[in-house]
Design brief:
The complex is a heterotetramer of chains A (396), B (367), C (147) and D (223).
Chain A: H1 5-15, H2 21-58, H3 74-84, H4 95-114, H5 130-138, H6 141-151, H7 155-186, H8 191-197, H9 202-205, H10 207-220, H11 232-235, H12 245-270, H13 282-303, H14 309-339, H15 348-373
Chain C: E1 3-4, H1 7-17, E2 22-25, E3 29-32, H2 37-46, E4 54-62, E5 66-75, E6 80-89, E7 95-97, H3 106-117, E8 120-122
Parallel strand pairs in C: 1-6, 3-6, 7-8
Antiparallel strand pairs in C: 2-3, 4-5, 5-6
Chain D: H1 5-18, H2 20-23, E1 31-33, H3 36-43, H4 47-53, H5 55-62, E2 67-69, E3 80-85, H6 95-99, E4 105-110, E5 123-130, H7 139-143, E6 149-152, E7 166-167, H8 169-174, H9 185-189, H10 202-205, H11 213-222
Antiparallel strand pairs in D: 1-2, 3-6, 4-5, 5-7
Helix pairs in contact in D: 3-4, 4-5
The chains are: A mainly alpha (396), B alpha+beta (367), C alpha/beta (147), D alpha+beta (223).
Chain lengths: 396, 367, 147, 223
């Protein structure tokens, strides 16, 4: 039996007498929420271990390895430490806002997971406006970040929060447009529908959409190279500078949930979700694909430096936005051409032809955009010694 | 309705991840743009110049270690150069070779620290820092072989060195010299063509050569501005006149050039060390009597090309056992002269990058 | 090899243009009267055959009965170096003209000298303490500073 | 082309992730985790045999709990704490105290010492070294004319109070005699390594062979 709202609801209302429908609804809802939230917190804790170990290896360090086998209990130790720490907040801080901030940041991450189809079904069943739900819910974390920055009455935090709002709002646009490409292709707003229509993963069919989405998503979760919200070398931590104890723990949890959320959406929309050869169950396929996606995000985090604030904004509007529009236009035109009005799903051979065209257009588009955006001043210049100094001079 | 805005003043430091020690920048922001900046020094002031007045000439060597704690060897050399000029001490040839080897190793180590922290400030999450420190660790191991300490070496003495290198130093040095060019290639491939680094550092914090000279800026920052001036060529001390090496310069004087000049200097240092290893003669490394030296009355200014620029010591002697006055011309201190002019008008992120590209070391600034 | 200009050579050059500014000269340095410092500095910087555009360092030494300010100059174009000194008598509020207008590099160093040695530089744009905090009593590098 | 530079960077970090020579450059202190292969190699037997022989240890190693002591090897010249002092060699001249840049060595002598091989010597009542302020520059060792004071080779001297950092004469007498070879070429010639070596007796630590009376007579008779 799969763990989903419908199954639990059916089970509970089977036990209860008739007419107590609302109790069955509440019980199954609360039970599911408990299970899902605890499982997700556990997964996020495990993911912190994974991230720190892999990042450590990237940086030729060891990463946490002391506490438990291979350091697996390190997240537990961290949680205990953070919970037992004193919760300090500045005297002049806005208590209500700063207390709500971590919660406002964490809740959207959990909400997204309610509708991610891990196997054939998701926890909440199949939401027929899944993509819209995702867009709406992930947009909420802007509030959390701004509340954290505003409520803690710290100039660094405020700067980080202002940067955050500007960046997150800008990157919503290309992200939504990239998802729209997938929606067009699948002909469905539901995530299960998108998974079902991926006879060929959309990564292959629309690479441009994938590229735009992964860049925009890594900005949405403020990871390198877009981590200017919490740029520790500039803002000493950004919006969560003034938080400690359990509030800080929740901020960190939300921050570590973000890659999981991104990887899950990425897997569902572009990597074919739980589809794969039947040799392995769909859930395992899902986890494997999500792991690969998180590894990619980690790899980028370990390698690239951060962009400047104006460059990030410029990149969103001048780089990603046109690319996303081009992607939508391309997909729409191709669907119009190949599907010719019918509603039957597109065949694999047609998808292959489409992907061929798309890869070609992607290459050309990126090349053109790179040459437009890439400044000629970045080319190395030949140094010429200044006439002001001559160290070989022999003075008379 | 017009929006009422007002500038925000932030104290960047004295404790801040990017201030290289305890240093405070009082910055006024208009949004993200820096409109005013005032550096506040002195958090690490230990009065080295006053302390030097009541220590013997040899004891001061230990004080110089603590000036620029990332390049103690160069500080040692700068001090003993000035002292030998004042006292007229001849240094044995083997000692000069060993001095050059250790100083050039220190230059590589110091530039590695710079590279690591510079890229850290650009936002590479610790990765480059760890890579650079991994390479630097081997140099520190070599220093441990030479003199038993890794950071505060106190290796040089007036008239020579404390000790000759041990026999296992030479194979280890050769191993290092073989590996180092590969490391530098790796760093270069990792960063030099990286578009994010380029767009962050190109045309940021440009320093014109005229201004640089006018503001007494020295070292890699001056060379990045296109001024080909290096004391190792211009006024060769020790045995640099016999060495064959290039002085790399930058084209525009922006942050990227400051980085790339240092990277190329590492290559040249490897070249110099290789030549030294080939040519080093046998013999003693010490001069008798210099440990208890009393230079004649007078004054002397000796300077060397330290990793951060021209490090000068102006020593006034009254014939006693300790200097009458020992003034330190520290490159980091003077290189911060142009800080305000370079940063104002840039973004906050530029501030961090420009300040990082100056490679200021607070131990040396505050002395 | 950087050639060090002897005090005599320097004194001849300066005396030709500004008579009676050179007090005395030694092998390595030449003493200028402190009042004439800015114009001599400008002359040293802008004369083509001297071209001392680079101010290496400004130092101050406390000789009990007078202070001495030492300017180490460098000409990068000609690879020349020179030492110019000036004497500053008196222990109560000693004062010499500032050379920041000529060499910007003197800015922080003159502030440092004011802070640690207590010599005021006339015409310096920002004559404040630099290493020590405002309100510190005394100037630590003076020989009579005991703490 | 614009945009390829960042891809190269990814390649380098991946190389650092995968290449073993770039991976294991860090020493974990004071012990490190070991795998089953290392244990077998250390015991010099086949890994399979090792598993059969010590199943408990193998399981611990597989789940990553097995550790061995591993310290960063340090060069014999390492200038460490806990000075090595030979009372037999010390004459109480206090050169070390004079040459200490910080003045942290305190020596009190009494004149009624007994005669020792190198000549008359003072009895030493107090010999305090405040290593809380010591910077291990080694000038005291360099100044010692009789090679009585040597730097030590340890570096684990953490204490809870600053006062405990003062090394007094009793501790100097009692401590193990494992001198660093820094500034002691006579120890280096014997390729002595304090990290693995034995204690050095006071007769070996000096820089001179004590001359026989014949030699001395010959030397002084010439003058």
């Amino acid at each position: 039996m799969e763990l989903g709202f419908r199954n639990i609801h059916a089970f509970v209302s089977g036990i209860l007498p008739d007419g107590l429908e609302w109790i069955a609804f509440s019980i199954s809802g609360i039970f599911l929420a408990l299970v899902v939230i605890n499982a997700l917190v556990g997964v996020a804790a495990l993911y912190t271990w994974f991230e720190r170990r892999v990042l450590g290896r990237f940086q030729s360090r060891l990463g946490p390895n002391r506490w438990g086998p291979f350091g697996l209990l390190q997240p537990l130790a961290d949680i205990i430490k953070l919970i037992t720490k004193e919760d300090i907040s500045p005297n002049s801080a806005d208590r209500i806002v700063s207390t709500l901030a971590p919660i406002a940041l964490l809740v959207p991450a959990f909400l997204v997971f309610a509708i991610i189809p891990f196997g054939t079904n998701s926890f909440l069943g199949d939401l027929n406006v899944g993509v819209l739900f995702i867009m709406g819910v992930t947009g909420m974390n802007t509030f959390g970040i701004f509340m954290g920055g505003w409520g803690s009455r710290n100039k660094y935090a405020m700067l980080g929060a202002m940067r955050g709002v500007a960046m997150l709002v800008s990157y919503e646009v290309p992200m939504a447009l990239a998802l729209a490409g997938a929606v067009l292709l699948a002909g469905s707003l539901s995530l299960s529908g998108i998974v079902a229509s991926q006879t060929l993963p959309f990564l292959i069919v629309q690479p441009l959409g994938f590229l735009v989405f992964i860049i925009a998503a890594s900005a949405e979760m403020s990871r390198a190279p877009f981590d200017m919200i919490e740029a520790e070398s500039e803002l000493t931590g950004g919006y969560h500078t003034e938080f400690s104890g359990i509030k800080f723990a929740i901020f960190q949890l939300a921050e570590f949930m973000a890659p999981l959320v991104t990887a899950a959406i990425l897997t569902v929309v572009f990597l074919g979700g739980s589809r794969g050869p039947d040799l392995i169950p769909g859930q395992v396929w899902f986890i494997l694909k999500a792991l690969a996606a998180t590894f990619l995000l980690l790899w980028i985090r370990a390698t690239w430096p951060r962009l400047r604030v104006d460059q990030i904004m410029g990149f969103a509007w001048k780089g990603l936005f046109p690319l996303a529009l081009l992607n939508i236009f391309l997909i729409a035109a191709e669907i119009q051409f190949f599907q010719s009005g019918g509603i039957e799903p597109i065949g694999v051979s047609t998808l292959l032809i489409m992907s061929g065209i798309n890869w070609l257009v992607t290459g050309i588009a990126i090349y053109i955009l790179a040459n437009v955006l890439g400044q000629p001043s970045l080319q190395p210049k030949k140094p010429v010694p200044s006439p002001l100094a001559n160290m070989y001079a022999e003075a008379e | 309705m017009p929006i009422r805005t007002e500038p925000v003043t932030i104290n960047l430091g004295p404790q801040h991840p990017s201030t290289h020690g305890v240093f405070r920048l009082r910055v006024t922001f208009d949004g993200e743009e820096v409109i005013d900046l005032e550096p506040v020094f002195g958090y690490l002031h230990r009065g080295t110049e006053k302390l030097a007045e009541e220590r013997t000439y040899t004891q001061i060597v230990t004080l110089t270690d603590r000036l620029d704690y990332e390049s103690a060897m160069s500080n040692n050399l700068g001090y003993v150069t000035a002292l030998e000029k004042l006292g007229g001490i001849e240094v044995p040839e083997r000692a000069m070779y060993l001095r050059v080897i250790s100083v050039e190793l220190q230059r590589i180590a110091s530039h590695l620290v710079f590279t690591g922290f510079f890229l850290q400030e650009l936002g590479t999450f610790v990765t480059m820092l760890m890579y650079c420190f991994r390479e630097r660790e081997r140099i520190l191991d070599l220093f441990e072989m030479l003199c038993g300490a890794r950071i505060t070496v106190s290796y040089m003495r007036p008239g020579g060195l404390t000790q000759d290198a041990p026999s296992d130093f030479w194979p280890a040095l050769n191993d290092f010299l073989e590996d180092m060019p590969g490391y530098i290639d790796e760093l270069e491939e990792l960063i030099t063509r990286n578009e994010i680094v380029l767009s962050r550092t190109r045309d940021v914090g440009v320093l014109d050569p005229e201004v640089a000279i006018d503001a007494s800026i020295s070292g890699p920052i001056l060379r990045a501005s296109g001024v080909q001036w290096d004391l190792r060529k211009a006024d060769p001390y020790e045995i640099y006149s016999e060495m064959d090496f290039e002085i790399p310069i930058g084209a525009t004087g922006d942050c990227f050039d400051r980085y790339i000049v240092r990277l190329q200097e590492m290559r040249e240092s490897v070249k110099i060390i290789k030549q030294c290893v080939d040519k080093i003669p046998d013999g003693t490394v010490k001069t008798d009597g210099a440990f208890f030296m009393r230079p004649p009355e007078g004054d002397a200014y000796g300077c060397v090309e330290a990793p951060r620029g021209e490090l000068g010591f102006y020593i006034v002697s009254d014939g006693g056992i300790s200097p009458y006055r020992c003034k330190i011309r520290s490159p980091s201190f003077i290189n911060t002269t142009m800080l305000r002019d370079m940063i104002v008008g840039g973004k906050m992120s530029d501030l961090i990058v420009i300040f990082g590209s100056l490679a200021v070391n607070m131990g040396e600034v505050d002395r | 090899m950087t050639r060090a200009l002897t005090g005599g050579e320097l004194a001849v050059q300066i005396n030709d243009n500004f008579p009676n500014t050179v007090d005395e000269y030694t092998d390595i340095s030449c003493y200028i009267q402190s009042n004439d410092l800015p114009k001599v500095a400008r002359f040293l910087k802008e004369t083509p055959n001297l071209n001392f555009a680079f101010l290496r360092s400004v130092s101050a030494v406390d000789y009990i009965d007078h202070f001495e300010i030492i300017y180490h100059l460098l000409s990068m174009r000609l690879n020349l170096s020179a030492v110019v000194k000036t004497k500053c008598p008196g222990r109560e509020d000693p004062c010499v003209p500032s050379v920041v207008d000529v060499w910007r590099g003197a800015n922080l160093q003159e502030r440092e000298i004011w802070d640690l040695m207590g010599i005021r530089f006339d015409g310096h744009p920002n004559m404040k303490r630099i290493m020590l905090w405002e309100g510190f009593q005394g100037h630590p590098l003076r020989k009579d500073f005991l703490r | 082309m614009y945009g390829t530079g960042i891809i190269r960077g990814l390649r380098i970090t991946l190389k650092n992730l995968l290449l073993p020579s770039r991976m294991f450059t860090l020493h974990q202190y004071p012990d490190r985790k070991v795998g089953i292969l290392w244990l077998a190699q250390n015991a010099d037997i086949n890994p399979l045999k090792y598993v059969l022989a010590n199943p408990g240890k193998s399981i611990r190693a597989i789940i990553g709990l097995e550790t061995v002591e591993d310290r960063q090897p340090k060069h014999p010249r390492f200038r460490g704490e806990e000075f090595t002092w030979y009372e037999q060699r010390c004459t109480g001249c206090a050169s070390c105290a004079k040459y200490c840049p910080l003045g942290i060595i305190r020596i009190v002598t009494e004149p009624s010492g007994n005669a020792m091989p190198e000549g008359e010597k003072y009895g030493i009542e107090v010999f305090d070294i405040d290593i809380g302020r010591c910077m291990f520059c080694g000038l005291c060792v360099e100044a010692c004319p009789y090679d009585a004071l040597h730097l030590g080779s340890g570096f684990e001297e953490g204490t809870y109070k600053r006062e405990e950092l003062v090394i007094d004469i009793d501790r100097l007498r009692k401590s193990r005699k494992k001198p660093s070879t820094w500034f002691r070429p006579q120890l280096e010639e014997k390729s002595y390594d304090p990290g693995i070596g034995r204690d050095v007796d006071w007769t070996e630590a000096g820089r001179h062979e004590s001359p026989s009376s014949d030699d001395q007579a010959a030397k002084w008779a010439k003058r």
